[in-house]
Each structure stands twice: as structure tokens, then as C-alpha cells.
Amino acid sequence: MTSTGNSSNTHPLFDLDVIGEGLVFADSLPELDAALASHRAAVVQAPPGTGKTTLVPPAVANHLARAGAGSDVSSNTGTPPGRIIVTQPRRVAARAAAHRLTQLTGTTLGEHIGYTVRGDSHTSAATIIEFVTPGILVRRLLADPMADGTAAIILDEVHERHLETDLLLALTGETQQVRDDLTIIAMSATVDAPTFARLLASDGTENDGMGTGLENVEPVPHISSATALHPLTITYTPHTGDRIGPRGVETSFLNHIATTALTAHREALATNPDTDALVFAPGALEVDHITQQLRAATTDIDVLPLHGQLPAQQQDHAIRGREPGGKPRIIVSTTLAESSLTVPGVHLVIDSGLTREPRRNATRGMSGLVTVSASQASAEQRAGRAARLGPGTAIRCYSERSHAAAPAHITPAITTADLTETALTLAAWGAPRGHNLRWINPPPAAALNDAEKTLQALNAIDSEGRITEHGRTLASIPLNPRWAHALVDNAARYSAEDVAAVIAVATGEQRIPGANLPDAIRHQQRKPHRPTQRETQRLTRLAHKHAGAGEGAGEAPEHANAAELAGIVTATAWPDRIAKHMGEGIYLLASGTRAALPPDATFGRPEWLAIADVTRAHGHAAAGTGAIIRAAAPLTPAEATKAAGNLAGTTTRITITPNGTISARSIEAIGAIELRATPTKPNPTQAAEALAEHLTTHGLNALTFNTNATALGNRLAFLHHHIGDPWPAMDEHHLAATITEWLGPELNDVAHGASLNSIDLTEPLRRLLPWPEAAHLDELAPARITLPSGNTAAIKYPDASEYGDGDGVSDDAVSEGDTSAEETSAEETRTEETRTARTQAESPQPVVAAKLQETFGWTETPRLAGGRAPVLFHLLSPAGRPLAVTSDLHSFFTGPYADVRAEMRGRYPKHPWPEDPLTAQPTHLTNRKLREK
Hints:
Strand order of the largest sheet: 4-3-5-2-6-7-1-8
Radius of gyration: 38 Å
């Protein structure tokens, strides 16, 4: 590193020629410098291995130092006007990037270049470039939204679509709007970069939470780099069986990966002794299994695991190059090594084709990591690791058909993950639900709704989505809000260190043996696992810091052993996972879902459990429930009730029996878990609510409509459809919503034991008639119509259900804008004509069945609903058989009637069949009776 001090700004802060030697991205630095000179944002697209992570931060520092030296603000200091923050999606990548840049600049870690990850930091007041994980930067922005002291934020690996990286893109957009000196750079390894370039140019209003409109935004500069790959050979060695089975990744498939890796590595070593291999497995459990298989099969190869659960020293050792004279290496890794790390010496990649992705199951109230096929883009990233330093080979342990069937791109975590922590961050930011923030994919509304319900139950946000003081406390704790709540709440009642130990074990990445959380805590106390021990210490410090915010603050600490405390803390975090044993190792959760203990569970079958981890599962292990308990602790009934909070209570559950009567029980329950039930009598309000729900579920068939009630309901539905308000809708939704208005007195009888089936609904429906318009019911929708013959005929109105959702006429055709009174009047006339014609064409019609002779002389078809709806006539023969159907009598009598007359006068010679029915005498009599009359 070369610094200019205060005398000159002609020398760079960092020597990019030294840092970029041999790196492909060095050729793109002039383009980056030009982009930063004209914009406050840019997107860098460069494949893995080109050097973007190594070169872009010092290049930005140099540019800002030059710009600052020539400004009034920095006054020729030769350093940037603030720190350069670089996010890496993984802790090991953040550490590795800092170490690498420190080595290239010949500086000391923590001096000009440093890093901060959870539980580990190497920085100083002189630090210019700091690598951090996204979560660290999110919490810094919540504490200081203006990002004071920061000159640039570089978001690396944005194409991986991690939840916190997407969130940072949204938050930094608002920060940049009020900081005209803040530079934002997004770095991507894929062709998604143009989309990010448009996003960085937006202010969030273009897509407004809908994810559209960015195509019209002028993008910020997009700097791309050529690939650094050498020749790459890709082959397929598929496993003969399934990769994923009912209990997860099949052991036989993992053994196939190990065998393939060892065989291929030995063959590669025969031609190039410097070849190291990189094996990709979906998770830590699979990494450990493959590592064990390889170590058992060879001693002349150094087999190293690489995943997030390992101590930092082991992770760093795995990603360093082979020591001079050292053994060949096989590194078995999760996706951690997919794109953000370069592992020296790797010329061979073995790919399982599997990955872990977050999934939220709203129905079961579960979320977690699920093993799925890796995307095609991820497969290309993995294969490319083999050809970064020279010609390489990638072997996919699955078929070409499976590769072709895999999704093209990574699934954005924001679309599938639990959003409780995200929703809390947005509330703390002052943008509940993330409205008007810039998103590549906006948070799904359903997931946000569920997250807000959880946060309201934790008293973290209010009913409007605004953050509470307790919520601000939870947002400041780098922990899932549920566990943060449990930490704060219980640290005020019990030993803070003991509470922290429960959460550290429960949230750790290690599998809980036998699903026994208390045993795992006791084992940690006897034989500490170093990462869990460090997490316990971290959480203890946080507990002491925030203990005063808990409900039990100031009270004398209570005592609880490991098992009791594990249950209490877990139930506080997850009250909806309080569960009761239903028999055969199956538990009913307060959320309403069922889950089974695993076959190897080691704490028996307690009556009550607090479940820390439950995941979807199939097959025998899940006992047909679809879910299996991975970690839990016993609870006493009293602890379960106390921890349940608002989930515990007494409700009246009302059911409607097949004979139409209402029965009610008073239920003491914890969520869906019924504790006690006693018979009771419902009040009219409860009966109304139950009946409304019953109607919504079962429709109006739940009520008994006699002939008169049905006819009245159809007439009202007819008027609502053709006229609209104030005539009421007769659809199920409306009747259920207004049930107390029209069925109130009868509901009181039902609440006292009367049957729904005994109610005559005619009078209740009359209560829906609007006044004074009700006086015109028989005029607008008469029950009968008078025929020209003097007789009357019943009008059969369409069934209310035939009108669809019950909406009345609409005003879609009404024009908008300024018009004169004459134009408005003419337009209203045309609108009414259009509306009437449309309604007639789309609507079922009222029907009158009458003998043809009784309609003689009707030159115009009668119309109902104030002239809006013509009657559809079924014209009958003297014997009552249908002859014609028409809603235009004049057209019928001047046209088709002649054919009907020619055919019918011979069949019914005793009845009149005049040539001109429009002027003939209407009658129901025969010719002889007419003469006698």
C-alpha cells in the first residue's frame, strides 16, 4: 500500500498494479473509474475468479481518495472521505477476502484492511476497507440510517439472492437518496447484472412493491469482465438410485459421491500431481458423512470438510492452498465454496447437484432449510471452480436429464423464506411491509402477513405495523426475533447465562441427538463445543445488556434445572409449537399441525413438549403426520399454559347439528389443543356468528326455503341485479354478512333450542326490503302478470344463485372528464341504454308460461324492473304444450306465428288461430264458447 499523506494526491492509495497482477478484472478498472466519476452507483459483473472482490474495493478507495483530495470536504487528505464497506454472504468469505487483500498490500490485518463477522472483528480507526457479512451491515444501518463515516457500500455476490442482501439493496437505496456522497456498487457473477443496474437507478417507486416497471428505468453503469476460465471438461456419473429419500439425502448416494471423488482424484493425480479436488454436498451433515467415507478409504490424501459449523481456523485452513510438499487435498464443502471463494489448487470438482434452500410452509407453520436440486446456474458456478487456475474437470454425480430439469436460476430466498426478521427490520427502518423500497422481488404479501402476526404476538409491532420499544430491542439483537424475545424475557427471570446456553444449543447448526434438547445442553456443559460456547458467551452479553427490558425485570431470579429451562425458553420463543401428546408418539401443536417424535427420541413421550425444531418429513419416521420433531424439551401443564400467552384461553365452540339445532361447548384450549370442554348455551350473538360462518361454508342450503321465501328472495335478487341499491343482494356472502339484520329474532329462538329447519324465512326476508322503495315491489317485480285475456299468470324469476356474486348493475360505461350539461345528459342516456342492453344480454330472464291465444293483441313485450328487463314468454298450445319461446312478441306475431298457425290450426281446430293475432281478441275459450259468449 502506498499513501500520499497530505502533500500530494498524485500517488494512489493502493497499488492496483501489484494487487491486480494476473487478475482478469484489472483490464476493467479504467471503465470502473469512469463510471464512478459520473455516477454514485454501478454494477460490476465478473465471473468467479476474475478478481472483482480483490480489486474493486481498493479501486473504489483510490477513486474516492482522489475525488476527496480535490474537494473542499476532504481537503487533500489522500484517503477516502469514509470507510469502504464490502459485504460477503458468508463469514469465511469475508475473512478470506480481508486476509487476501492484506497479503497483497503488505499490510497488517485490522490496520487499513479488516473484517467484522459475528463474534469476530479485526478493525481499527485506520481501517479503510472493511469486509462484513450482510447481517452486520443491516444492524449498522438500523442504528445509523445515514451510514455516517461510510463512503461506499459494495454488495458482493448479489446474484445469490440471499434474503439479507436483497434487504440491503432496499435499505441502501433510501440511504443514498439522502446521502449524495454515498457510492453503492452491486457485484454479480451472472447475467442478472443488467437488472441490478436498473434497480440501483430506481428510487423504489417504479415497481411500488409490484416488481414491474424497472424496464423503463435508465440503468447505472454496468461494468463487465471477461471470464477467467481455462478449458473445462464436464462429465456425468449418475447414481443408479434416488438422491433424496423420505429421510433426506440417501446414504447410498453420498457413498457414490465419495467413491466417484476418490477414483477421479487418483486418476487426475496420475497426470497432474498438483491437482486438488472440491466436492459439493448440500449440507454439513452430508459433508461430514462424505469426509468420513473418504478418510476411511485413504491415508495419502488430506480430506478437509468446509461448512459453516466449523471453527474459523478449520475453515481458513481448508481454503488455503496446499502447503509445500503437503499431501494432495480433497475439500468437501457446502455451497459455501460455490462462488465467493477461490480455493487454490483445485482442478477437479465433484458435484452432488443438491443444495439447501429456505422454505416456508404456511399451512403447517414451519420454516427451515429443504434439500432441493441445485439450479443450472449454480451447477455452472460449481463446475467453473475447476478451471480457474488451469484446465479442469467437473463431474456431476447425476444425469444430464436431471441437470436439464433443474431450475435455470437460484430461487430468491425472499420468495420462499420466513420473513419475520425481515418484517421486523422493515418496521424498525420505518417502512412497514417495505413499501416504496427498491426490490428485485418484493416480499410476498402472504408471508409478510404471517410475519406481522408473529411480531404482534411478540409485542414487537403494533396493529398498524409500527415498531414498539420492545420491537426495537429485538431488532438490535442479531438473532431470530422469536429467540431474541425469549432471551430478553427469560434473562430477567433466570440466569442469563443459562438462558443463553439454551438458545445457543437450540439455534446451533449441529443436529440434536435423539431430539433431546435438555440432553444436548447438559452435554455442552460437560464437553463444550467451541462455536456453541462462543455463541453462549455472545448471547449472555446481549442478555445482560437487555435484561432490563424483560417482563420479569427487577424480580428475584427464579431457579430452573436444564430440562425445565429448556422447555420454558423454547415455549416462550415458539408458543405455537407447544405440543400435547396424542398417543403413539404423535403430538398436536398449538398451531394445529401434527408432528411425530423420531424413532431415536431419547426422552420418552412426555405429555407436553416445547418444540424448538420441527421439519417436514415423509414416510415411516413421520408416522403419517408429514412432520418430524428434531429438537424439543418437556413442559409441565402449568408452564405450557403460562408460556402460551394469548394462545391460552376459553372460547365457546358452536356447531350446527344435521337437524338444524345449535349446540355449544365452552372450550379451554391452548391454540388448537383442547384441554377441557363443558356444554353451554350460546347467546344470540354467538348463534349469529356461528350461523354466518355455517352459511359461508355450506351455502344457503343450510336454511330451509319454502316456496314463498324462495319466490320473494328471487324477486329481490332480480331487482338488485337490474337496479342495484337499495334493493338488497341475495347471494350467500351478503346474506351471511347481514344475518343479524334479517334473522335476528329467529336467531334468539335458535339459541334457545329451536331448529333452523322450522323457520319460515318469508317474513325474515321481508325485513331486507328497503323503505320507502318497498312500496313499489309489486310494480317493479310483481308475483303475477295480467294477460290480455284477463287471466293472470305467475312470473317465475331466475334463481338468486344465477346472478353470480350478487353485484348489481355497474357504471363501467360512464365517461370521465369535463362535459357540458347537455353532453352529460346525452351521455347518461346512452349509458343507461348501454347498461340495460348489456344487462339484458348477460342476465337470466323472468319467465311467464301462457297459452298463446291469451296473449293476442300484445304488440309490445311487457318489461319489468322499470322497463329494464323483458319477460321471456313460453307460449303454450291449448293442451299446455310449448309452441315457442320469445322475449319479443311483436316480432313473433309478425313472423314465426304464421308457421305455428299453419301447423296448429289443424291439430286444434276448436281454438281460434286468427291471421292477425295483433288485432285478434285474446281468450282462453274455444271458438264455440266465444260464439256463445
